User: What shape does this take?
Amino acid sequence: MVIFCNVSFIKGKKEIQQQDLLLGEQVVLQLTENFWGKWHHIYFDNFFSSTNLMKMPLEQETYTSGTTRAKRKNWPTEFRKPTVLKLKRGESRKMQHEDMTEVVWRDKSIVLLFSTNSNPRTEGSVTRKTGKGNEEIEIACPQAVINYTKHMGGVDISDQIREH
Assistant: This one.
């Protein structure tokens, strides 16, 4: 279930309250602080993600997951050039650093993801169309990506509609 309880209009850098945090980090922390201490799970996209943002809510008993960018600070150097991994569709690479899992997964394109509520050994599968009529196949998918996709769907659809 997705619940939006806080709304805040961010006007830019002038609103920065904590100099040691990025604006995106501050926005997510401010909008979610009422959920801390309850082991809820917060999902966000690559605009907001950082290792710093992943760790801070966990210290407040709150899980996080978010897509990221390959050049993001503290993203594993082994994953900085995901095309070098030569992953086939359904293949993934995962790393665990402290309480954070980093995932690179190949679907039609590469997906990069951080999660503090994910066992890197847990796999599932997703159904995908092959492009040949209505034919579908099952491909392997890390559970962290399955969870992210399931819970971020509404936000992603909203983003898609806004682009048109």
Q: What stands out?
A: The mean pLDDT is 84. The chain is about 25% helix and 25% strand. The longest strand covers residues 100-106. The helical segments are 23-32, 51-59, 143-163.
